[in-house]
Amino acid sequence: MELSRRELLTRTGQAAAVATAASTLTIGTARAEPGERVKLTQGTNISVSRSRDGKWLAIDLVTAIWVLPSGGGEARKLTDELQDATLPSFGPGNQIAFQSYRDGNFHLYLIGLDGRGLKQLTQGRYDHREPAFSPDGKHLAFVSDRAGSYGVHVLDLATNAITQLTGVPDEAAAPQWSADGKRIIFTVGNAAVDTVTLDGKRERLVTAPAGTQLFGAAFGPGDQPSYTRMRPGQADLILGTTAITSKEDVFGFAPIWNGDGVLYTSDGKLRSRSGDAVKDIPFEATVPVRTNRRQHRTKNLTGGAVKGIASPVVSPDGTKIAFRALNALYVLSGGKATKLTDNRYFDSDPDFSPDGTKLLYTSDRDGIPQLRVRDLKTGDDKAFAPAPHAQMTPRFSPDGTKVAYLDHDGQVWIAEPAGLRQVTPTLFQPGRPTWSKDGNTVALAAVKPFSRRFREGTSQLLFVDLVGGTLTYTEPLPFRSIATRGDDGPVWSPDGRNITFVVESVAWVVPVDVQGRFLAEPRQVTREVTDSLAWSGTDSLVYLNNGRLRRSTLDGRVTTIRHDLTWRRPKAPERKVIRVGAYWDGEAHALKRNVDIVVEDGKVKEIRPQHGKADVDAGTLTAIPGLIDAHNHWHLRGRQWGARQGLTWLAYGITTVRSPGDPVYQMVETREALAAGTLVGPRFYATGEAVDGSRVYYNFMRPTLSRAQLDLELRRAHELGYDLIKTYVRLPVELQRAAVQRSRVPLSSHYLYPAANLGMDGMEHVGATNRLGYSHTVTRQGRAYQDVIALFTASGMSITPTLFQSRALYAKDKSIVTDERTRVLYPPWEYERFVADANNQGTPAGTSSLNVLRGWVEFALKVHRGGGFVITGTDAPLDSPATATHTNLRALVEFGFTPREALITATRNPARWLGLPLGAIKPGAPADIAFVEGDPLADIKAAANVKLVAVGGQVHDIPELLAPYRNQQTLAAHTAELPALPSAENKHWWHEPEWAERVCCDHS
Question: Which residues, including other chains, have CB under 8 Å from residue 768's CB and lie 6 or more apart?
Answer without folding.
Answer: 750, 775, 802, 1000, 1001, 1003, 1004
